[in-house]
């Protein structure tokens, strides 16, 4: 037992994901069992860096009542943001223009002023990269891997992924009937950023005819051939699942834009693919962009359990004296890995993995 721990903080950063509230509940209850206080930071680190934005205060005292009945809820009771990294915080300069400044030292001072003995940082690669910087500056941190994209290294899976895939597969299931009724090609764009995990799993589960992922630059003619082959067999409709980060051979990703203090926003590739397929095949096409629907709603049972396991493991790690690490799923257990290792690389889809081999055996095209 780490005797010096009396007060811990929790924050949720980056895009939301089903299961965040379950982690919060597990952390709070596990900490209270040990006699520790819990403080929640609002909206990533904004609650500390801009407390004036919160009339009720930028932090929340988390009690049993605070976390009662939240395991099944989507979103996060603490709020989150994908803008406002303390390492590159957006502020207005003297000319009234937005610039990015490093406020990490200020954040460290604020955490110490609150007598925080350890921080549980729940987030994806960006949030954990911030956590790693804070760890190097002397803040005791345990990270919890959250992202629907499943692109964090060192953990078999992240919570939020199963919920996103389950919804996407159900959406693809629904689109089959309307596509067949109208003899249409339906192009379904899903999130995932630079990794194709959601598209691959939802496409295979939903029996898509083609799946386009960032890991395999596609040839649109190959995809069109797949549609033509179906028509030749009397199947006058097709389902194409496209990851938002997919791109053609020699082409670039489709980017919607980028604001100060924010990562580039991907989107639009579904419409591009649909327009090209309509021209190449003569088939009527429609595009469905699932977008933030994949982030919303409550977590699946699998994600609830994983989130609760991660939250409890984070507190056990603090109690054991661990620091600068992330909890990771390594079935059948949860282990601890250095934050630096967790963010060292992006976990993309291995092209020789069993799910890829299964998809190819089923005749699914990847446009290659």
Question: Layout of SSEs?
Answer:
Blueprint: E1 7-12, H1 20-33, E2 37-41, H2 46-49, E3 59-61, E4 89-92, E5 98-101, H3 104-113, E6 118-123, H4 125-136, E7 141-145, H5 161-182, E8 185-190, H6 197-205, E9 210-212, H7 220-232, E10 238-243, E11 255-257, E12 265-266, H8 269-281, E13 285-289, H9 301-319, E14 325-330, E15 333-338, H10 339-342, H11 354-361
Parallel strand pairs: 1-2, 1-6, 6-7, 7-14, 8-10, 8-13, 9-10
Antiparallel strand pairs: 2-3, 4-5, 11-12, 14-15
Helix pairs in contact: 1-9, 5-6, 7-8
| DSSP strand count | 15
So what's the oligomer here? single chain
Mean pLDDT: 95
Main sheet record: 7 strands, mixed
Class from secondary-structure proportions: alpha/beta
Give the terminus-to-terminus CA distance. 54 Å
Number of helices: 11
The number of domains = 2
* Radius of gyration (Å): 22 Å
- Based on CA inertia axes, which overall geometry fits? elongated
Residues in β-strands, percent: 15-25%
| SSE order | EHEHEEEHEHEHEHEHEEEHEHEEHH
Which parts are unreliable, with pLDDT below 50 for 5 consecutive residues or more? none
Strand order of the largest sheet: 3-2-1-6-7-14-15
CATH class of the largest domain: Alpha Beta
- Share of helical residues: 25-40%
CATH topology of the largest domain: Rossmann fold
Assigned CATH architecture of the largest domain: 3-Layer(aba) Sandwich
């Amino acid at each position: 037992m780490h005797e010096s721990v009396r007060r811990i903080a929790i924050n949720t950063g980056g895009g939301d994901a089903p299961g965040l509230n379950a982690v919060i509940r597990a952390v709070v209850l596990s900490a209270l069992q040990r006699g520790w206080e819990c403080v929640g930071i609002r909206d990533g680190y904004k609650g500390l860096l801009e407390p004036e934005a919160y009339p009720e205060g930028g932090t929340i005292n988390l009690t049993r009542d605070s976390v009662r009945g939240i395991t099944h809820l989507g979103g996060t009771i603490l709020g989150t943001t994908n803008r406002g990294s303390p390492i590159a915080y957006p502020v207005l300069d003297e000319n009234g223009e937005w610039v990015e400044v490093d406020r990490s030292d200020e954040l460290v001072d604020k955490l110490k002023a609150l007598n925080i003995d350890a921080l549980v940082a729940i987030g994806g690669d960006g949030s954990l990269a911030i956590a790693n910087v804070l760890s190097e500056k002397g803040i005791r941190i345990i990270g919890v891997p959250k992202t629907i994209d499943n692109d964090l290294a060192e953990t078999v899976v992240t919570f939020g992924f199963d919920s996103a895939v389950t919804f996407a597969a159900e959406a693809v299931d629904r689109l089959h009937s309307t596509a067949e009724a109208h003899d249409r090609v339906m192009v379904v764009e899903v999130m995932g950023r630079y990794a194709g995990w959601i598209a691959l799993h939802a496409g295979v589960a939903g029996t898509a005819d083609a799946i386009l992922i960032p890991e395999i630059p596609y040839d649109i003619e190959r995809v069109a051939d797949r549609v033509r082959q179906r028509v030749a067999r009397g199947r006058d409709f097709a389902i194409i699942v496209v990851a938002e980060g997919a791109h053609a051979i020699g082409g670039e990703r489709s980017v919607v834009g980028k604001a100060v203090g924010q990562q580039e926003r991907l989107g639009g590739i579904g419409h591009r693919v649909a327009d090209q397929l309509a021209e190449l095949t003569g088939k009527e096409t429609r595009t469905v962009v699932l977008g933030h629907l994949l982030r919303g709603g409550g977590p699946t049972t699998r994600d609830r359990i994983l989130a609760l396991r991660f939250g409890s493991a984070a507190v056990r790690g603090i109690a054991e004296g661990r620091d600068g690490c992330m909890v990771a799923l390594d079935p059948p257990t949860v282990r601890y890995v250095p934050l630096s290792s967790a963010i060292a690389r992006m976990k993309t889809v291995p092209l020789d993995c069993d799910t890829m081999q299964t998809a190819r055996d089923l005749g699914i095209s990847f446009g290659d």
